[in-house]
Amino acid sequence: MEYRRLVSEAHLMVQEFLQTQGYKGALEAYEQEAKGVLEDIPKSMPTPKPLLEVLTDKRMAQLHSQLGQLNMPSQAEEQDFATPGDYNSIPSKIHEVIKDIHPVNIIFARTAEVAVEPRLDDLELDPTMTVKKVGALVTAAADRTIKFTLLDGNTYGDEQPGQVFNILQPHEGVALDIDFHPRHPELMLTSAMDKTMVLTNTITGEQHQHFKDHAKFVVRAKFAKNGDIIVTGSHDKTVNIYKVQPGQDVHQLPRYALDKTLNFKGAVEGLCVLPMTSSRTAPTVVIGTRDDNYLHYVDLNNYSTVKYNMNVNNDDWVSFTPMDISVSPHNDGGYLLVSTDSPTGRQILFRTDSALQLFNYYGVPTDGFSTPRHAWDKSGKFFYVTGNDHKIYCFQVGGSQEIMGILEGHTSVIRGLHMDYGRNMLVSCGFDKSVRLWVSSSALTAAEDQSNMILDQ
Which residue spans of the chain are classified as CATH 2.130.10.10? Predict the structure, then answer.
């Protein structure tokens, strides 16, 4: 399907070139010979970029590269790129395949230290305990439920690792994003296809707040500024910012009110909250949308916005959508990774707070219907990207920009990707109704040795 679209675009570009250059005889001969292809092109197909503009873009990119303006890493960046990561220390081997959590497509999966109510055995050990935290796999699926599954090394009452210990349904539609308050782990933030954003108390299971301010799917929901701000992005082309209501008891769960709505050209797809550092003192969110070639950096204090053009030659041609955006886990978030829906499988590594493209990565199977997701490893030396061939691709940051490894096992669309830095574990989920946990070669070997030791005993 993608190949046919590219062939159609190429034919239209040649036709437009012959028309604008006045080659009437050549145009007539071309239209006659290519009649079958031209007649088969849908009238609704968008007009492709003119051939001369495509060639101009290519020449401009070459010129930038020759002048050293395309890749101009700082000394610190050059040193970071020159220090290779250890591929053997990052998740690349399947540790566990979980197929019995949901009977339907799984949309989202992540790990979290979830706050729960202490059980009797917990209180026997510590009578003063009011909140217990357990390591859990948190999943959202097409059955509209959010389930909490105990991870290895955790028990909760009679439940053992691998067992579901809580089920919530905060939405009437499928949940698309999940985040947890950084200071109140019992406060779970979710957004969904039912156009709502919900705050749920994971200890009581009760709804803390329910917001209905969007008109379409709410695809992104994140806490910012130590939990004092919530940012949501929707296919209704808006981003909403909620702030903690003043005058609240600091010992109570915070309550929020809508403070600002930002409007954009297209549906919001990518959204990333930047870490606050000594050089970045204002809480900032980066937003990417459809029908727009800019990344929007929004100061969440005063809502001032800085736009950075994702096109090297600074034109306003929109050729891809930034589907997923995240910041590097090291170097104070110095890099911004953008996964696009370009048919070339393009991933762009920007310098944060800049339009500078440090590297471009290609080769991940992608098309205009893809929803690529990515995740960094904890060292910031590698990242993973989902392809539409049901595989996960691993790239090294810097270096040759070549694919370092491919993680295979899913049999349908991979919808979610999450990195657990504490466990050094990659979590993937998808439409094959499974969650897969990936660990490093050394961790897998250690686990197998431990298992063998127990069997020997």
Answer: 84-99+320-457
Give the closest residue to 110 by CA, choosing from 364, 415, 321.
415
Please enumerate, as own/partner, the contacts of 171-175 that have beta carbons within 8 Å and a separation of 24 or more: 171/144, 171/196, 171/198, 172/144, 172/196, 173/144, 174/107, 174/140, 174/141, 174/142, 174/144, 175/107, 175/108, 175/140, 175/144, 175/146
Q: Rounded to an integer, what distance in angstroms lies between the CA atom of residue 238 and that of residue 259?
A: 13
Q: Confidence class of residue 369 from pLDDT cuts 50, 70 and 90? A: confident
Domain range 84-99+320-457, CATH architecture: 7 Propeller (2.130)
Torsion of CA 162, 163, 166, 168, to 10 degrees: 70
pLDDT at 67 over 50: no
CA distance 457 to 449: 12
Task: Give bridge partners of residue 234 from the DSSP assignment.
Answer: 218
Q: Which two tokens stand for residue 187?
A: 């406060």
Q: How far apart are CA 431 and CA 3, in angstroms?
A: 25
Does residue 436 or residue 398 have the better pLDDT?
436
By CB neighbour count within 10 A (0-12 exposed, 13-18 middle, 19+ buried), where does 191 fall? buried
CA distance 406 to 365: 12
Share of the chain above pLDDT 90, in %: 71
Which are the contacts of 172, defined by CB distance < 8 A and separation ≥ 6?
A: 144, 192, 194, 196
Token digits for 288?
């990417």
Q: Return d(Cα 261, Cα 239) in angstroms, integer.
A: 6
Residues facing residue 399 across a β-bridge: none
Give the pLDDT band (50/70/90) at residue 455.
Answer: very low
Return the DSSP state at 432: T
pLDDT at 370: 87
